[in-house]
Design goal:
The complex is a heterodimer of chains A (683) and B (307).
Chain A: H1 2-24, H2 35-57, H3 61-91, H4 102-120, H5 129-162, H6 165-187, H7 197-200, E1 207-208, E2 213-214, H8 229-236, H9 240-310, H10 315-329, E3 334-340, E4 347-354, E5 357-360, H11 370-378, E6 382-383, E7 406-414, E8 417-426, H12 434-500, H13 503-535, H14 541-556, E9 559-564, H15 574-595, E10 599-608, E11 613-621, H16 635-646, E12 650-655, E13 661-668, H17 672-682
Parallel strand pairs in A: 9-10
Antiparallel strand pairs in A: 1-2, 3-4, 3-8, 4-5, 6-7, 7-8, 10-11, 11-13, 12-13
Helix pairs in contact in A: 1-2, 1-9, 2-3, 3-5, 5-6, 6-9, 9-10, 9-12, 10-12, 12-13, 13-14, 13-15, 14-15, 15-16
Chain B: H1 3-34, H2 41-66, H3 84-108, H4 114-138, H5 150-182, H6 187-224, H7 228-238, H8 242-268, H9 273-300
The chains are: A alpha+beta (683), B mainly alpha (307).
Chain lengths: 683, 307
Amino acid sequence: MSIIYFFYGLAFGGLGLAAFLQYRRGGDFPLRKLLPWLAAFGLITATAGWVEMFLVTETNPETIQVLQYLQMILQPVSGSVLLIFGWGILAKLNPLPSWTIFIPGILIVPLAYVITYAISTFITPSPIEIPIDIWSRYLLYLPGSLLAGLGFLRQWSIQRKLGYSDVANLMLGAGLAFLFEAFVMGLVVPAAPYGPASYYNYDRVAYDALAAESVQIAQPYGLSAWLDYQRVLEVTGLPIQFWRMLSAFAVTGFVVRGLDIFEALQKRQLQMLHEERDRAQQAAFNAQLAARQTAEGWSDALVRISSQIAELEDVDRILLYIVESARPLLNADFMGLALLTQDSPDLLLKYYAFPGRSEMVTEAISIDNPLILEVMQSRTASRSSITEAPERLERSCPFDQKTCGALAAVPLNLDAYPIGALWVSRLALQPFSDTDLIWLECLADQVVIAIKHGLMTSQLQSLAVTEERSRIAREMHDGLAQVLGYMNLQVQTLEAFLQQGKLDKLQVKLEQMHEAVQAAHADVRENILSLRTTLASDRGVIPAIQEYLDEFGIQTQIETHFDNRAGDELELASIAEVQLVCILQEALANVRKHAQARNVSVHVSRQDDAAEQNILLLVQDDGLGFTPSRQKRSFGLQTMTERAQSVGGSLLVWSRPGEGARVECRLPCLPKERQQKTDRILN
Amino acid sequence: MNVREWALPVYTILMQLATGALFILWLARSFSLRDNLSSKIDKILRRPVMVIFFTVLVAIIGSHFHLSNPLQSFMAVANFKHSWLSREIVFTILMFFTCAALVDQLGKYEGRHTRVITWLGRMTVFFGAASIFCMSSIYRLPTQAPWDDWSTVLLFFGSSLLLGVTTAAALGVMDNIYGRGREAELADERMSILRSSFGWMSAVITATLILVVVVNFVQILAVGNGDQLAQTSMSLLLGLYQPLLIFRFVILLVGVGMFILATFWLVKQGKSIQELVTPVYLACLFVLVAEILGRFLFYATHVRMGI
């Protein structure tokens, strides 16, 4: 018997040691949290087995007493630890269904009765170690082993479904081993004078414990002697301790082997999870990349649209560009822009784009799609859903007979008044997203801005024409009209001289008239040249200046010299370029009118300093010169200075009588980053 | 072991448990309606009340094993005027039917008929309390001087409250966890009801514990001063059954202590409901064991029950 107890202890000791070592090896698999309980169970049960071994061989009553006390402590402790492990393996590794929360609630009342009954048996005359042994088995080992067995069987089912047959078989073995242990360790108990032990120990309990009198106990349920130590020995020929040792080896064998495989399995699952995570990360990265590309596409399109608006391009071109460029970005099969006009009560299609074609519509094509009209009336963006009625999607693609599967439309509101609608449609039943609708609203804003700009540009052009007419009228009044008035007076004088026969005076007057006509002619030609140069800016500033100087030399017989060291692109703002040309014209006009110069030189160069870059225009003549302090009230010089200052530049005039004059004009270039941005937009 | 002898404590304990739990749930419902904590309280109470109904059903089935012929139980009405046992049976049956009607109303008319449900609940609690009063009065016999005292009635109601508080808490926790995945829209309201109820439930269980200990002490003193039969009971209680008596109060204290700990965790530390399962279940189990043990001692020291 002592050998049996020795091996019994050895088996559980091995289990405890293996579990402890497995726990020490680390890892993050769920079973690891339960390993300390399994290790404690194995080691405590092993100790209890070896205590039992010493009890068999020991003869000293005092030692026996101590060992019995130790056994009375070890047995319930090991049973409690097994119960915790069993509950953990059943409920903690994989969550139980929510209805299982009611099981403890249902069991609580019968359990309370059983516990109360167990407590009441402690006052019976039998030795105290007997109820401790019995109730440790009934209340701790039995449910603990059952829970552990069911837990491993649950793992068997789970692993089998996952296709891990090797692990599943070990789990099945461990489950069955624990169920066997539940029988031999939890149900087979020593003889005792109270139920249920008394039922199958009836032949060894012949008295009622409380009344201390003989009783006849019935033998119900057919359990009887199978759960009795004596009967087990009689039937199997082996003591119950042997079967317990066998269960210990079975449990240890399956669980220890299962621990290794379980960890390998967890590692395998972890590897799969890592791969899954990598795939998810890659997918997320691809999605981010696609989103970024889409955003960049939209940014480019919006920048291009804005630059076209800023460059005052033709509105029709801008609006056509909008539908043409946005359709592929929205992954749409058709994009249309319709406007309300004064000529028709209907909403008329003006621009459209579909794969391979985009154009402005010249004939009247009415748009009567219900959803688009609804958007117009409500002035709220809308998109069709997956369950949208087909009739609400009809006639949204005027050039396609098929009914589209998805539609998104936004209103065009100018100063809170609806002026039209912008929409996209897809043939496939794939609704547009809220993000698509937001982009479409951005485009609608751009459309409205383009239309507003178009209206403003035409107003400005009218204003500019009116202003230019006023200026020409003023020039004519101040120049040509004065000369003609003077000529009229002179003609009357000539008539009088002719009648009086004063031919010598007549001759003088004619010469004066000739000079006046020449001066007027020069002014008119210069004005024509100025107008032509200022308005013809398409060729660029430098060629315009060169051409103007050539013409000026021919008209005035003044030798002109042009020296350009700034390159063809001056990198000035458009308005600064215009002011530069105007300042040059004014300076040359002054040379012609007042300097009596034979040569005039024009230098254009670039000046760099730390803060900014400037364009320097230098106009120098070899004429009479003048004293600048006496020319303060000169209207021409003041105008030139104001022109330079209006674009952030400066103007300096140097002159001395007899030494000619020099006009220096500095205008700031555009900042570099702005130039780069402008270049990017234009490219 | 005789099944018929076990049936009586099964019936009495379960009836006390059901009545106490319903009383506590109904208090929680009243507070919730008063403080507008929940407009869906009746929907939340549906499952716990159903559990109480099945508890009453099990108690009644258990009682029939004690009262011999179940088919003759309706004859109890005839002796209503003279017999506490008959009155107990009648009130138990009435409680059963009002509880069934309550379950029906809660299931059918969720969110409506609040007044009908309120009155049905009150009637069920009243019939349950009447039943407990009758079952305690059965033992107030002139021949049994120690029982013939108001302390017996007080102890029966005390047990009912102790069991009621812990059972109602366990039902609340169970229902909270079960309903979390199914009725997510009620999760916040369930939690707020639990948080607001555990505080006063702790106060109730503590006060009841003190009452039970004091009354038990007074009763033991009264038994000590009683006749010879009472002296015999006294010697049994302080002799053979003394370890059980001590164990009963220790385990009762531990159970109440665990409930107070659970309340502290929930209200002060804001722990999750999942973390409350173990202390609340254990509190319920310990109080139940203490009360069954108390009932065992009650019968064992006066009547030979044989367990």
